[in-house]
């Protein structure tokens, strides 16, 4: 299984969780079978590239996305690609993965998704 966390810098377990998943520079991916850590550069249309993050991550074989929060539309896009989304990720990428492994991150639903695209509130 591949777990993905949006990263605010160059990626890796010590990088901080990026709070706006579509605009982060990188995504850190942990393969739970091999424990390998990899990164994918965000080349989505949000960053001047092509495609949406759920599509790019689906092509990379991602099964689970851990993020701080995201909107309804994004939750639906991830669902279309068969990627499960969990919210409430914070701190470092490594801490977010440990929180998910411990069952401490709730699955994203239409109820706990951000209602607007303006992120002026704290999660």
From TrEMBL:
<dbReference type="InterPro" id="IPR003731">
    <property type="entry name" value="Di-Nase_FeMo-co_biosynth"/>
</dbReference>
<dbReference type="InterPro" id="IPR036105">
    <property type="entry name" value="DiNase_FeMo-co_biosyn_sf"/>
</dbReference>
<feature type="domain" description="Dinitrogenase iron-molybdenum cofactor biosynthesis">
    <location>
        <begin position="14"/>
        <end position="101"/>
    </location>
</feature>
<dbReference type="Pfam" id="PF02579">
    <property type="entry name" value="Nitro_FeMo-Co"/>
</dbReference>
<protein>
    <submittedName>
        <fullName>Predicted Fe-Mo cluster-binding protein, NifX family</fullName>
    </submittedName>
</protein>
<dbReference type="InterPro" id="IPR033913">
    <property type="entry name" value="MTH1175_dom"/>
</dbReference>
